[in-house]
UniProtKB/TrEMBL annotation:
TM region positions: 31-56, 88-108, 147-167, 187-210
Organism: Endobacter medicaginis
Keywords associated with the record: Cell projection, Cilium, Flagellum, Membrane, Transmembrane, Transmembrane helix
Highest taxon, organism lineage: Bacteria
Protein name: EscU/YscU/HrcU family type III secretion system export apparatus switch protein
Annotated SUPFAM superfamilies: EscU C-terminal domain-like
Family, as annotated: Belongs to the type III secretion exporter family.
BP GO annotations: protein secretion
GO cellular component: plasma membrane
Pfam family, one: Bac_export_2
Amino acid sequence: MAEGEDRTEAPSARRLEQARRDGNLAISRELGMLAMLAAAGAAALASLPSAVAALARSMAGLLGNLGQVDVARGGLRPLMRSLLTHDMMPFLPLLLASALGTLAIGLLQSGLSLRPQALMPQFSRISPLSGIGRIFGGETLVEAFKALLKLGAFAVVIWSCAAAAVPEVGRLVSLDPASMLGLFGRLLFRALVEIVGLQALIAVLDLGWVRWRRLSKLKMTRQEQRDEFKETEGDPHIKGRIRALRQRRARRRMLDEVPKAAVVITNPTHYAVALAYDKGGQGAPKIVAKGVDEVAARIREAARKANVPLVPNPPLARALHRLELDTEIPHEHFQAVAAIIAFVWRQRRSGTAG
């Protein structure tokens, strides 16, 4: 790469695929947080009323029997154990929903890509120097700025929910437990909707930022693009030399077929087409060599050395040159080619061919 060359080119498909295999993915943490909140909120709406009711009954029983508990002898311990195990079980769906929601959105963002090697320790991550670099690096400052903005936005939403709930608080003293739980449920639902909505907006913005930042980091210089092209498609100069070598080999094989030809039809200077014909066979004459200019001259030279007759016929030579090698003469040229081959055979019988 040239010194100081800017990364201005979009990353190639190969670079993006390599980054994906290396674990460099556009994963938004805020999208994971949204999935966790949404899943927990849905689970809460479904299970929270019964969970709160069960917890209220347990707390009422605990407080009602508190005077009979021998605290000094550890009598409170079984009650607390029951409260934390049996009575808190209705809240378990919230925890499971949060965990599953976060896991699901993480897998979707990564394209269901699992990398066990990511669990292996990387000593570069625990290096003090690299740690200091990460702390004072630009990425940390950006993340800190994003966290401050998010904290401010949530503070505004929570303040709005609290301000809307203040007039309802005064009614609590006149409500029975069922109505009180209903009021709490409505306030909680409103707060949940506003918080999830705000988190959804933050997640969309963060996902766009993460994807843009990843593509920016993966941008390539023009030299990197050229190097990658050479690796994947091959060096154009080397490919050109290989192509020329193959053409020379094909031409040499073609010239080796000229001595086996029955006749070479010429332009007479620009075109040359060598035809082979098996007198005892069933097929038509076949093109075994063809060329123009320099290649035509070499075909004529090989024909003279092998005493293969050269017959000038410019229209027929040009027409036959348009056909592929190793193809038989089509019907429209049978008469002209047959006349030439018959002429060559007569010349050979008379001893004047060539």
